Amino acid sequence: MRTTWLCRIYMDSIVDSLSSAYQEFIAAAAGALEAKESSSGQKTPATDAALENFKQRWEMFRVYCDQAEEFVESVKQRIGSECLVDEATGFVASKAGQTVQSGLLPISAVRLEQMSKAVRWLVIELQQGSGIGGGSSHHNAAAPFDARFTEDATQ
After folding, report:
1. In the prediction, which pLDDT does 17 show?
2. What is the pTM of this model?
3. Contacts of 71 (CB under 8 A, 6+ apart)
4. Buried b / exposed e across 120-138, counting CB within 10 Å, b at 16+?
5. Taking Cα atoms as reference points, which of 75, 151, 87, 147 lies closest to residue 118?
6. Which 3 state secondary structure label does DSSP give 91?
Protein backbone atom coordinates (compact mmCIF):
# COMPACT_ATOMS: atom_id res chain seq x y z
CA MET A 1 0.00 0.00 0.00
CA ARG A 2 1.33 3.36 -1.03
CA THR A 3 -0.30 5.15 1.92
CA THR A 4 1.27 2.78 4.44
CA TRP A 5 4.66 3.21 2.79
CA LEU A 6 4.38 7.02 2.87
CA CYS A 7 3.19 6.89 6.47
CA ARG A 8 6.24 4.78 7.37
CA ILE A 9 8.61 7.23 5.65
CA TYR A 10 6.99 10.17 7.43
CA MET A 11 7.12 8.34 10.77
CA ASP A 12 10.80 7.52 10.26
CA SER A 13 11.47 11.17 9.44
CA ILE A 14 9.70 12.31 12.62
CA VAL A 15 11.63 9.81 14.74
CA ASP A 16 14.94 10.88 13.17
CA SER A 17 14.15 14.58 13.72
CA LEU A 18 13.06 13.96 17.29
CA SER A 19 16.17 11.91 18.02
CA SER A 20 18.43 14.56 16.53
CA ALA A 21 16.69 17.35 18.47
CA TYR A 22 17.04 15.31 21.66
CA GLN A 23 20.77 14.78 21.11
CA GLU A 24 21.22 18.53 20.45
CA PHE A 25 19.21 19.34 23.58
CA ILE A 26 21.35 17.03 25.73
CA ALA A 27 24.55 18.47 24.23
CA ALA A 28 23.30 22.02 24.92
CA ALA A 29 22.45 21.05 28.52
CA ALA A 30 25.95 19.65 28.98
CA GLY A 31 27.42 22.79 27.41
CA ALA A 32 25.44 25.03 29.77
CA LEU A 33 26.60 23.03 32.79
CA GLU A 34 30.21 23.10 31.62
CA ALA A 35 30.08 26.85 31.00
CA LYS A 36 28.66 27.43 34.48
CA GLU A 37 31.29 25.20 36.05
CA SER A 38 34.18 26.82 34.18
CA SER A 39 33.01 30.29 35.23
CA SER A 40 32.73 29.21 38.89
CA GLY A 41 28.99 29.91 38.76
CA GLN A 42 29.48 33.52 37.65
CA LYS A 43 27.47 35.09 34.85
CA THR A 44 29.66 35.59 31.81
CA PRO A 45 29.11 36.04 28.08
CA ALA A 46 30.01 32.35 27.68
CA THR A 47 27.40 31.22 30.21
CA ASP A 48 24.81 33.52 28.64
CA ALA A 49 25.53 32.07 25.20
CA ALA A 50 25.39 28.51 26.56
CA LEU A 51 22.07 29.20 28.29
CA GLU A 52 20.63 30.79 25.16
CA ASN A 53 21.71 27.76 23.12
CA PHE A 54 20.13 25.51 25.76
CA LYS A 55 16.82 27.43 25.54
CA GLN A 56 16.80 27.25 21.74
CA ARG A 57 17.50 23.51 21.75
CA TRP A 58 14.82 22.98 24.38
CA GLU A 59 12.26 24.83 22.24
CA MET A 60 13.25 22.84 19.14
CA PHE A 61 12.95 19.59 21.06
CA ARG A 62 9.46 20.60 22.24
CA VAL A 63 8.45 21.43 18.65
CA TYR A 64 9.52 17.98 17.46
CA CYS A 65 7.74 16.35 20.42
CA ASP A 66 4.56 18.21 19.45
CA GLN A 67 4.91 17.08 15.83
CA ALA A 68 5.37 13.48 16.93
CA GLU A 69 2.33 13.70 19.18
CA GLU A 70 0.22 15.17 16.35
CA PHE A 71 1.34 12.37 14.05
CA VAL A 72 0.46 9.70 16.61
CA GLU A 73 -2.98 11.28 17.12
CA SER A 74 -3.62 11.40 13.36
CA VAL A 75 -2.64 7.74 13.00
CA LYS A 76 -4.92 6.80 15.92
CA GLN A 77 -7.81 8.65 14.26
CA ARG A 78 -7.08 7.03 10.91
CA ILE A 79 -6.98 3.54 12.43
CA GLY A 80 -10.21 4.24 14.30
CA SER A 81 -11.88 5.49 11.12
CA GLU A 82 -10.74 2.46 9.16
CA CYS A 83 -12.05 0.14 11.88
CA LEU A 84 -15.36 2.02 11.90
CA VAL A 85 -15.70 1.72 8.13
CA ASP A 86 -14.81 -1.98 8.24
CA GLU A 87 -17.35 -2.62 10.97
CA ALA A 88 -20.03 -0.45 9.35
CA THR A 89 -19.63 -2.10 5.96
CA GLY A 90 -19.79 -5.52 7.55
CA PHE A 91 -16.27 -6.75 6.97
CA VAL A 92 -13.75 -7.72 9.60
CA ALA A 93 -10.43 -9.53 9.30
CA SER A 94 -10.33 -12.99 10.79
CA LYS A 95 -7.26 -14.29 12.61
CA ALA A 96 -6.12 -16.11 9.47
CA GLY A 97 -6.11 -12.79 7.61
CA GLN A 98 -9.24 -13.59 5.62
CA THR A 99 -12.11 -11.15 5.31
CA VAL A 100 -15.38 -12.40 6.76
CA GLN A 101 -18.86 -11.00 7.22
CA SER A 102 -19.46 -9.51 10.70
CA GLY A 103 -22.69 -10.04 12.62
CA LEU A 104 -23.84 -6.49 11.83
CA LEU A 105 -25.89 -5.52 8.83
CA PRO A 106 -23.71 -3.48 6.47
CA ILE A 107 -24.48 0.15 5.67
CA SER A 108 -23.46 2.07 2.62
CA ALA A 109 -20.39 4.28 2.57
CA VAL A 110 -22.65 7.21 1.67
CA ARG A 111 -24.82 6.58 4.72
CA LEU A 112 -21.73 6.27 6.92
CA GLU A 113 -20.41 9.60 5.64
CA GLN A 114 -23.76 11.27 6.29
CA MET A 115 -23.88 9.91 9.83
CA SER A 116 -20.33 11.10 10.39
CA LYS A 117 -21.26 14.61 9.21
CA ALA A 118 -24.32 14.60 11.46
CA VAL A 119 -22.17 13.69 14.46
CA ARG A 120 -19.66 16.44 13.56
CA TRP A 121 -22.50 19.01 13.41
CA LEU A 122 -23.79 17.89 16.79
CA VAL A 123 -20.31 18.17 18.29
CA ILE A 124 -19.94 21.69 16.86
CA GLU A 125 -23.35 22.68 18.22
CA LEU A 126 -22.49 21.30 21.66
CA GLN A 127 -19.12 23.07 21.65
CA GLN A 128 -20.84 26.34 20.81
CA GLY A 129 -23.22 25.81 23.70
CA SER A 130 -26.35 25.59 21.59
CA GLY A 131 -27.08 21.98 22.52
CA ILE A 132 -29.33 19.72 20.57
CA GLY A 133 -32.23 21.59 19.02
CA GLY A 134 -30.79 24.92 20.15
CA GLY A 135 -31.40 28.24 18.38
CA SER A 136 -29.36 28.99 15.29
CA SER A 137 -28.31 25.63 13.99
CA HIS A 138 -26.93 24.96 10.53
CA HIS A 139 -28.30 21.46 10.81
CA ASN A 140 -31.88 20.25 10.98
CA ALA A 141 -32.03 17.62 13.74
CA ALA A 142 -35.29 16.23 12.33
CA ALA A 143 -33.59 15.40 9.01
CA PRO A 144 -29.94 14.67 9.83
CA PHE A 145 -29.06 13.14 6.49
CA ASP A 146 -28.93 14.61 3.01
CA ALA A 147 -32.14 13.69 1.18
CA ARG A 148 -30.35 13.71 -2.19
CA PHE A 149 -29.01 10.25 -1.44
CA THR A 150 -31.92 7.98 -2.29
CA GLU A 151 -29.82 4.95 -1.42
CA ASP A 152 -30.51 5.64 2.25
CA ALA A 153 -34.27 5.62 1.80
CA THR A 154 -34.14 1.88 1.06
CA GLN A 155 -32.17 0.99 4.18
Report:
1. 94
2. 0.53
3. 10, 11, 14
4. ebbeebeeeeeeeeeeebe
5. 147
6. strand
